[in-house]
Amino acid sequence: MANNKLSWAELRKLVAQMAGASEQEVGMFLNALVDAIIIGLKADQQVKLKGIGTFALKPMAARKSVNIATGEEFTIDEYNKLTFILYAYLVYILLISV
After folding, report:
1. Model pLDDT for residues 23-36, shown as the tens digit of each residue
2. First-to-last CA distance in the chain?
3. 3-state class (DSSP) for residue 38
4. What H or E segment, with its residue span, contains residue 15?
5. Run of H or E including 37
6. From CA 35, how far away is CA 44, in angstroms rounded?
7. In angstroms, rounded to a whole number, what is the distance separating the alpha carbons of residues 14 and 27?
8. Model's pTM, two decimal places?
9. DSSP state of 67
């Protein structure tokens, strides 16, 4: 794990080792999981994974900003921001293990 970031390949390898499965099987599962989350977000604006957390799309209003290089003002259009809220028990486990 370089720079405290877990790459997709590292995640696939770690889960495969922990589950006793092949990296190919885990890769297919992870891809299917991401696809299912995307489908759920498009349909309902949020996806709850019991015991893990909630992915949600948060609407962000249009706003004005300034190009720091030129000083020119411009508008950032409204968009949906992806958020993830970790299940409270996992937060607790992470905090007591530090």
Report:
1. 999 999 999 999 99
2. 18
3. helix
4. helix 8-19
5. helix 23-44
6. 14
7. 11
8. 0.76
9. -
